[in-house]
Amino acid sequence: MPGVRHLVLVDISGYIFRAFHALPPMTRPDGTPVNAVFGFTQMLSSFLAEHRGSHLAGVFDASRTTFRNEFYPAYKAHRPDPPEELVPQFALIREATEAFGVAQVEAPGFEADDLIATYARAFVESGGEVTIVSSDKDLMQLVRPGVQMYDPIKRRAIREAEVAEKFGVPPNKVIEVQALIGDAVDNVPGVPKIGPKTAAELILAYGDLEAVLANTAQIKQPMRRQNLEQYAEQARISKRLVTLDDQAPMSLTIDELAVRPPEPAALEKFLRDQGFRSVVARMGLGDAAGDSGSRARNSAVSAAQAAAAPVAPADPTAAPFGAYETVTTPEALAAWIAEATAAGVVGLDTETDSLDALNARLVGVCLATAPGRACYIPLRHVSAGASQGDMLEVPAEAAPPQLPFEATMAALRPLLEDPAVLKVLQHAKYDLEVLAQPGNGGIAVGPVDDTMLISYAMEAGKHGHGMDELSRLHLGHTPVPYDQVTGTGRARISFAQVPLDKATAYAAEDADVTLRLWHILRPQLREAGALALYEQVERRMVGVLRDMEIAGIKVDGVELARIGEDFVSRMAVLETEIHRLAGRVFAVGSPKQLGEILFDEMQLSGGRKGKSGAWGTDAAVLEELAARDVPLARAVLDWRQLSKLKSTYVDGLTAQLDPRTNRVHTDFSMANTSTGRLASTEPNLQNIPVRTEEGQRIRRAFVAEPGHVLMSADYSQIELRLLAHLADVPALREAFETGQDIHSRTAADIFRLAPEAVDKEARRRAKTINFGIIYGMSAFGLAGRLGIGAGEAKGIIDAYFGQYPGIRAAMERLKEEARLQGYVFTSFGRRLWIQDIGAKDPVRRAGAERAAINAPFQGGAAEIIKRAMVRVPKALRDAGLGARMLLQVHDELVLEVPEAEVAETAALVRQVMEGVATLRVPLAVEVGTGRSWAEAH
Fold first, then answer.
1. Is the torsion defined by CA of 492, 494, 499, 502 positive or negative?
2. Pure H helices in 126-221
3. What is the chain's mean pLDDT, rounded?
4. What is a single Pfam family found in this protein's UniProt entry (predicted)?
């Protein structure tokens, strides 16, 4: 309304870090990082297009320390330094703020939040209204008549009702609640065991913090009452920390905040200098394609802007699914490319003729620019009756109307490689590998977001992260099934044979669903505490694993054949011995026949029949019999081991060997485990036995290229180091810090032996319990492992916990956290959901409790090696070294290294791997090299 005074205060600091973490690494032509600058300009330009008051200011933090650190030095003390890629962007963001015509305010010794509080108070007192552009919960205490907030990500206003929904109290009580709950991110201590719900109940019941502390005697819950009494002063300090100071110095007067329009030429120059063509296009400042763009592309951009491409609605589930467009003309293709470029964010999916990304042929590409707005670009479709031979060449008479492949991929390349357009995919690694293949365009897609990994970063172990499951869970929509368009069994056809109308309905929907999921899930990352995990680890792993899978690892086919022949010979000898022990010939590979011999004919005890009526003869049954000195059981176990190794690794590797390169290319699954670990399939290279001669023989078949060696870099006892860190066990910390043998030290401690008196048996027992404790092993389990009585095993465990009480406390704490929350955390903040922790069945519940104990250790180890994996390739490039990572196997990285660079590479890899995390104990990495993997490990 004319005459209304309206001050818009933009929390620039919040924008900076949100923008930095919201986008993958981007650089302008001179190599300067600009992903935060780009995200900032995207958000600021979009907001200013819709919300420009009479007065406007961008509020900055002037320094890391403020008056709060004077009375509480620990405040925000644990926050790490800004990432090195962000530091050079601070100045550019100030330039961007100036280019947009936004006044800048800051004050040394005060946080941006204090300045926002000050200017909001002053402006309201002068008769105006204020909008604070931020989603920071700490600013919600300022909401009142005349002052509202606006969340630029969720694009919604935050008023008193929204604050009450968030905190359970009105805005004027927010600081009282925050004083009780604290804030781990900022080191605001609060009161232990007081969560948001409890805090709100207390404040509503008693009025404010002091009233709560004055009435602790009335609180019925003993633990709650005790904590409030014990940590009363801590709560008072917390209140001082969270209360914003609205009397901070004002570097600019209110009159100096009056809106001034940006100077178009200066703004356009700034944006073009950074390479932000899509922002230039969206703001109508000039030719989005730049001087090198074609006339057709420029025309398409203008047409797309004139048509006002749909903007994502506040509710991504609101738009209908379909109908979608089939793109079969150059004009339609140009318009979609222009629309996607102007949108700045595009859903992307590929359709292929195979699940093997490295050998799949690209059949079509899907784009989505907004919920409900998507298209399918067919590229290599043939008629439904075409033969496989037709599909390879796609003759004109066998193909439906579609664009020529090479010309279409050339037109798509600028969009798919544009650093200013975010490509959103589900399971991005697959599509990136497909498009990187020379026969599929040879395109290096980026930057990307991956909805599968966004979900996984927040809810590992809670549910699956496939697109169909996420769609049902978050959109309430079941996508078109693949079987519905291709058929099943022998009647199944290749996707290239699917008619275009059905292909479009299926494929474009995938891109649409992916983009909708992104709109819903992306904003949740910060609230779930998973933003840094996703941005700095999971998303960066996509490119790392893509490169590793494309590289593969060389296999000596001749050696593999020799191993196979040896396994066959040894299996034949074992089979003869098995028949002798059984007293007759039978099919060794038949569980049914083996069960009949063991439990019907030999009358052995301990057998259990399954639902089919057959005796169970799985590994656990045979191991139990072997422990009772039943030779037949041990012989069958040995035969099965050889049979599995032959079928999985000898025959399996031979079948999957690329005849052109003699390399195998495993597929690393990124979101299948509940702990964050990677899994390896097709072939699985993570389950080759390490400590058996057979496993070592198989590893000898993995070799380096001529002039190179394989290098194994293996974290030493990483899970035990995490145990010492998490449980803060002084004796274990000392052992790791001084380089002692951890198992000998444990044996000396729990068996009360002098260090020199620890023999192999004592060390073996200590090693078994050290590793078993991480998996929540019971006395019964330890007895089975050590071959001792349950009573003796219980005594060892009691002695262990008696010597290291911190470990028992940590284990009990993990189980309690899982029961209360449904999840536990790794040391690095990843939330791991524990299924069945509330199960009524005691067996399932006990299994869940063991999982709760183990998850932080496995998950923490996974986090550490992933951090190393995203840093090692860059470190190698920066050092000018030619090594490349090939495999990750649990705590081990395998690299292929030029012979002349072994020493320098080993030193660098060890330095990077040991420096990726700071624990209470040092990380240690063992590095070995050799012509084969066996020699290197």
1. positive
2. 160-167, 174-181, 196-206, 209-214
3. 87
4. DNA_pol_A_exo1
Q: Which of 623, 640, 661 is the last residue of a domain?
A: 661
Residues 851 and 806 in one domain: yes
Burial 105-120 (b: 16+ CB within 10 A, else e): bbbebbbbbbbbbbbb
Which DSSP symbol is given to 884?
E
Instruction: Report the CATH number at residue 588.
Output: 1.20.1060.10
Contact 606, 622 (CB under 8 A): no
Taking the C-alpha atoms of residue 43 and residue 393, their distance in angstroms, rounded to an integer, is 46
Confidence label for 385 from pLDDT (cuts 50, 70 and 90): low
pLDDT of residue 22: 64
Q: How far is CA 686 from CA 177, 364, 891, in A?
A: 48, 33, 10
Domain around 483: 314-528
**Strand, coil or helix: what is 280?**
helix
Identify the domain boundary among 256, 282, 302.
Answer: 256
Q: Which residues, including other chains, have CB under 8 Å from residue 661's CB and lie 6 or more apart?
A: 552, 554
Task: Assign residue 795 the CATH number of its domain.
Answer: 1.10.150.20
Q: What is the pLDDT of residues 703-723, one digit of tens each?
A: 999 999 999 999 998 988 898
- pLDDT tens track for 540-570: 999 999 999 999 999 998 999 999 999 999 9
- Measured CA to CA, the distance from residue 665 to residue 656 in angstroms comes to 8
* Residue 597 in domain: yes
Residue pLDDT, tens place only, 667-705: 999 999 989 999 998 888 888 887 788 888 899 999 999
* Together in a domain, 57 and 135: yes
Say if residue 183's pLDDT is above 50: yes
Task: Find the length of the chain.
Answer: 937
pLDDT digit string (tens) for 350-377?
A: 999 998 999 999 999 999 999 999 999 9
Residue with tokens 């205060």: 9
- 467 and 401 housed in the same domain: yes
pLDDT, residue 925, reads 94
pLDDT at 311 over 70: no
Nearest residue to 848 via CA among 814, 800, 807, 808: 814
- Residue 889 pairs with which residues in a beta bridge? 892
**Phi, psi angle pair for 182, to nearest 5°:** 70, -170
Q: Are residues 373 and 500 in the same domain?
A: yes
Report yes or no on 568 lying in a domain: yes
- What is the C-alpha to C-alpha distance for residues 318 and 316, in angstroms, rounded to an integer? 6
**Phi (first) and psi of residue 463, to 5 degrees:** -165, 175
Q: Which two tokens stand for residue 623?
A: 């191991």
Q: How many domains in the chain?
A: 4
For residues 187 and 177, what is the distance between their CA atoms, to the nearest angstrom? Answer: 16
Task: Kindly report the backbone phi and psi dihedral angles of residue 906, in degrees, each rounded to the nearest multiple of 5, phi listed first.
Answer: -60, -45
Q: Which amino acid is at 882?
A: G
- Regarding whether 653 and 505 lie in a shared domain, the answer is no
How far is it, in rounded angstroms, from Cα 564 to Cα 581?
25
Classify residue 474 by its DSSP letter. I
In this structure, the number of other CB atoms found within 10 A of the CB of residue 605 comes to: 7
DSSP strand pairing (448-450 vs 362-370): unpaired
- pLDDT over 90 for what percent of the chain? 48
513 and 581 within one domain: no
**Residue 593 domain-assigned (yes or no):** yes
329 and 415 within one domain: yes
Q: Is 150 helix (H, G, I), strand (E, B) or coil?
A: strand
- Residue 868, both tokens: 């190393």
Residues 726-764 have pLDDT tens digits of 888 888 888 888 888 888 988 898 888 898 898 988 888
Q: Which residues face 132 on adjacent strands?
A: 9, 149
Kindly state whether residue 913 falls inside one of the protein's structural domains. Answer: no
Tell me the per-residue pLDDT of 195-206, one tens digit each, with 9 for 90 and over: 889 999 999 999
Q: What is the CATH number of the domain that holds 153?
A: 3.40.50.1010
Residue 24 pLDDT grade (very low, low, confident, very high; cuts 50, 70, 90)? low
Helix axis angle for 718-727 and 730-737, nearest 10°, is: 140
Whether the pLDDT of residue 822 is over 70: the answer is yes
